[in-house]
Amino acid sequence: MSVLDKLKLDDKVAIVTGAGRGLGRAMSIALAEAGADIVVTARTKTQIEETAGLVRQTGRKALPVSCDVTDSSSVNAMVEATVAEFGRIDILVNNAGGYTAGYNDELADISDETWRIGIDTNLTGAVFCCRAVIPHMTAAAQTGTGRGKIINVTSGFGLRAGRNNFSYTAAKAGLINFTRALSMTYPATIQANLIAPGLFPHGQKALIDWWKGGKFVPMGRLGLDEELGPICVFLASGLSDYMNGQIIVLDGGGLAGGQAPTGFAPVIPMEVA
Amino acid sequence: MHARRKDGNVLEGFSLAGKSAVVIGASNPLGRAAAIALAEAGANVGVATTTRAKKEEVVANSCANEIWALDRKGFALAIDASLESDIDALAERAASEFGEVDVLVNAHDLPYAQPIGDISFDDWRRAMDVNLGGVFLACKIIGGAMVKQGKGRIINVATVLGERGMANGTAYCAAQAGVLNMTRALALEWARTGVTVNAIGAGWTEGMGIIGGDENRQQLERYLPYKRLAKPGEIRGIAVYLASDAAEYLTGQVIWIEGGALSHA
Q1: pLDDT digits (tens, 9 = 90+) for A107-116
Q2: Quick check: B5 pLDDT over 70?
Q3: What is the CATH number of the domain that holds B215?
């Protein structure tokens, strides 16, 4: 089989969380273009309906399911709905998450409740989804239809910290080592890898301005949501079969220099020679 | 500015049709696998050896035969990758065969393992000159031409020994780690030129010169999550992705395909 044919996801079923907009929407469409049917989940019904419509335009099936990933009964119901509709789960993209209450606060001002929301949204939700799908992926692996592919979306803030950014950085770092533990525990059943996107403003002007259009990103620009599609397809496909527990950082060079995403572009002045 | 296709199917972004590539170290299993993968994805591919050892030349020639069999243009050249004149010759050959070079894969590999007390400074320098210096030369000469073109992809191939140390590996591990951090530095230096620089970190791979005998191999297999060594072809997907328009925003990264080996404590 040619190397490009192995990218195809025909007859695969993928769940994408946080799929109502932004990166989740872009990854849903990319997976569908590669041939997968998509379970489109997020909390907001109008947004997932819209993404589902875009998935259907590619010729694939879409099942929009409202789901709050921080509520395990909601997650379990979403997974059951997937199995009822499609009979299988091959791919799980844990993309739901985001900055939550407490971002930019002093630690002393972060309440127990605020802390828990941050960790639940950015870490526990992915854990609940993995816990619910792995039995189905195990069953599929045992019947010889292939191992499941789990793709967790972390962040540059999972690898480097940010000032006054406690729960988000802790949760995203936690997601990284949770994923590694998954990869080592179930190598016969699943592969679990991570994508760490850099600065993706999803077309929002306020964010583009806040990040100065990406002039501090080494490549000189911000990321486009669609740029996450190909790497998501790669990680979901047979081409990444030996990749396990790894992070792919897609950030225009930001972390290669070790700077915080909006920091300076490091150049050693030539005078030092 | 964005060469990425916005309208086409996501899979089209991975195609290398109409592109040309040079792969140094196609005489070892990882370089060879990358070269064939790029050709399968549509690229014309010229391959070169790491050293002028006869057995390397034989493998490089058979790799070129496989590229021709896929109906792509290609050539094989025996070089010592640590010599500037040989890299100049490779660049000239590629320019005459293909015009521009879009993709450079540096898969240099001169296996070397000795306890530090037994390493002469000359031997140290040879291991460094080939495994690290050779990558520097290819980036400077062939990558430099890409900067003038305003586009290109450099893919350096190293292994888990670039990240983890190993007894008897002072020279080899240092050279491989050097390749990985040179990748990050050059990615930043060229971040706004249209040339991306990334590395593939391969796992313990079948046929890797550094693995040694059966006892070593069995120990490794027990330790790895998949209970087996990697096959060279397991890097082919990431090689195609990094070489393609689909990876336009990705630079300065080391992508590991190592079966989870590095997730271990």
Answers
A1: 999 999 999 9
A2: no
A3: 3.40.50.720
Six-digit token string for B203: 């796992």
Chain B contacts of A233, Cβ < 8 Å?
10-11
- How far is it between the farthest Cα atoms of chain B? 60
3-class SS at A143? Answer: coil
Q: Which domains does chain A have, with CATH numbers?
A: 5-272 (3.40.50.720)
Look at chain B and report how many structural domains it folds into: 1
Catalytic annotation, residues of A: 168
**Which of A34, A233, A256 comes nearest B253 by C-beta?**
A256
End-to-end CA, chain B: 42
Cα separations in angstroms, B261 against B34, B177, B198, B226, B230: 21, 17, 20, 9, 10
A7 touches chain B (CB under 8 A): yes
Token look-up 């086409």 returns B8
8 Å CB contact of A183 and B263: yes
Q: Is residue B45 part of a domain?
A: yes
Query: Between the CA of residue B29 and those of A253, B128, B156, B190, B259, what are the distances in Å?
Result: 29, 20, 14, 29, 17
What average pLDDT does the structure give for chain B?
94
pLDDT digits (tens, 9 = 90+) for A73-101: 999 999 999 999 999 999 999 999 987 77
Measuring CA to CA, which residue among A214, A167, A218, A223 is closest to residue A195?
A223
Question: Does any domain span residue B3?
Answer: no
Count the residues in chain B.
Answer: 265
Tell me whether residue B131 is in a domain.
Answer: yes
Distance from C-alpha of B191 to C-alpha of B197, rounded to nearest angstrom: 8
Cβ atoms < 10 Å from Cβ of A44: 11
A66-85 residues touching B, CB cutoff 8 A: none
- CA A138 to the chain's CA centroid: 21
Q: What is the DSSP letter of A92?
A: E
Q: Check CB contact of A158 with chain B, cutoff 8 Å.
A: no
B126-179 pLDDT tens trace: 999 999 999 999 999 999 999 999 999 999 999 999 999 889 999 999 999 999
- Quote the domain boundaries for residue B64: 18-260
